[in-house]
Amino acid sequence: MSSTSVSDDLDDLTAIRDLAAQVAEERYAPLAAQWDADRTPVPLAERQFLGSLGFLGIALPERFGGSAAPLSHALTVIEQFAYHCRPAAFQIFEANTGPAQVVARLGTEEQKERFLPGIIAGDITMAVAISEPDAGSAATDLTTKAVVDGDTVRVNGNKRWISNGSEADVYLVYARMSDAPGAKGIGAVLVEADREGVSFGAREKLMGFRGIPSADIYFDDVSVPKKNIVVEPGGFRKLFTTFSIERLGNTTMSLALGQRALDLTMRYVQERTQFGKPLIEFQAVQMTVADMALQVEAARLLLERAASAVVTGDDLPNPLHVSLAKCTANEMAKKVTDLAMQLHGGNGYTEEFGLERMHRDAHGWALAGGTPTMQRTRIVSEMLGRSFDQRK
After folding, report:
1. Which CATH architecture has domain 127-231?
2. pLDDT at 244
3. pTM of whole model > 0.70?
4. Class of domain 236-384
5. Architecture of the domain made up of 4-124
6. b or e along 321-342 (b: 16 or more beta carbons within 10 Å of the residue's beta carbon)?
């Protein structure tokens, strides 16, 4: 897949959307339920297959093997895959909207050359490590330390709720790098999984996200070269501004869940009969389906507005627009998948129809990357142009 095939015009976007939908439906939809049941991580060969199609580098620089296309192109592909199989979609999400974007935008040329080609090819994966046992929504309370010692950095601490934890090859670790209080002392350093002193806890048995591993990471006096520092202390705002791109990937995953639930329901209520007529003939059903459609379309429009600002590798989305989109899409996915289960009746409660799996995943995406409650706080903060100290 060449760069022109995903970035030139609307025809190319249509082509990549169609290709993504075809691959997702034919290759990954049949695997989705089993990967969920077995909690199976996506095999390396499948990730490399996605890389060979160009899906892992859509929004990453051309000189490292990517396509340098607008972010909206990558989100389109993520949606098509998430519609059928979230674990497969996660590989595209992580490469195009995850920590690789931080390296592409804030990293050194050496870091880009060392990591981005492998990520784009699917040979390696990179995960972000922010949350800790006592620092989730309150990210600036993190205590993991990365202390510069000559030409090396020594990392000590514990990270929790790390998506792709124990599976990724390298981690973008947010750490306290100076004695400055709060966000002022936080920077980020890359830590390879095979470094001495890196270990992992047991994989979490989550309600959803079952094909996406999650595990604690322990750093016991881990030594990495100083050149692995991506952002020096004091750069926390830059890190979190870039993290807005990952939130748009998250929003897209939620949108795909809502759209899939709506589509399945539209078909079901026209085929299923009760009291001698199709379910769609009942006004209560019509009102419910209309509410589902309203919520899905609202989330889509908010996502499109937020993503439209990110055309080149230097662009960043409006934080207010991101929080509005993420909060809306996260809550929409939970609600719409729940309504879909209700309209499917007993069938909706079975694994066979896949709706319960979608509902479980919807809750996971709402928690990841900043909960709806935290997004509401950010929305008001951005609207008023001021911050709120939750500690007082």
Report:
1. Beta Barrel (2.40)
2. 95
3. yes
4. mainly alpha
5. Orthogonal Bundle (1.10)
6. bbbbbbbbbbbbbbbbbbbbbe
